[in-house]
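In keeping with the milestone schedule agreed at the kick-off meeting, the structural modelling team has produced records for the first pair of proteins. Each record is given below as a sequence line and a structure-token line. The laboratory manager (R.T.) confirmed that both were archived under the project's standard naming scheme.
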Amino acid sequence: MEIVVPEGSGAVGIYGFARPKPERADELERLLLSFVEPTRAEPGSMQYQVHRDVADPSTFVFYELWRSADDLRAHLARPELAHFQQHRMDYLREDLEIHWLTPLSVTL
């Protein structure tokens, strides 16, 4: 799956689910958490969160809020994110589930 950021102006939000292979869950958690601080420091990053689903702790949930689609595209082009995208199925039992959001209450 290629991640295609929708066109548009203004902020863009994203939430999604990562469902790891059981034997790779701890490794995926460490990897996802390693993205947090560098991503929060990127231009245009307004929020970047990684969670575990309470009802299904084997599922990771992520939430991102970006100033613009261009900022998100720049993030996804970073080498560590591009590498993860290319090798994500080494960790996942099914592909990422991604939902795009148009923020309505964001102050830029």
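The second protein of the pair:
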Amino acid sequence: MSELEPSELLPSERMQTQVLEGEVTQIHRGHQYADVGDTFTIDETTFEVTDVTERTLGDLTDEDAQAEGMDDLEAYRGLLERAHDNFEWDDDSEVVLHRFKTQ
């Protein structure tokens, strides 16, 4: 188990604030950035990574998008397309789910 810098897992201050406020409880990334049991601290609140699972973009649901602070999967897809140059949604693209909770 390791203590991570929040920015290692959560790429923006906006997302870190959403985690702190309970609006975001997971993030999918292109690679694995943490292991189960790792922790990170935001403004004196410590979070523990509770699940790390390999998935594909096609596995994602509206529930996943909502857990990442979006209204639905379509909004999540739009965010990814705006955030990443040359991004094309491919249901077969591999991603890694990182789920966390307040410790």
